[in-house]
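(Fold this chain)
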Amino acid sequence: MTWGILFLAGLLEIGWAIGLKYSAGFTRLVPSVLTAASMLGSVVMLGLALRTLPLGTAYAIWTGIGTIGTAIFGIMVLGEPAGVARLLCIAVIVAGILGLKILSPH
């Protein structure tokens, strides 16, 4: 259950990172409210996961999920470059997340 909470926290991190783009510096009401709600939910869920998971592992996975999801969103929706080197770097982050999950004692 803890890993699921951490995964959802990471998904909400993706949501608030994307929301920052669409809130236009918190000048647009609906994107700003959704971004703030995603921020709060993400941090609360990370805090819940930290009850049982090691800090370094949980934080690295949380930020990794956010990084990967935001980068993929940028490529797929915003037309950001998807060069081989960039995709390989994203793959390295995925490998790091999987490694931390596999090696975690919880």
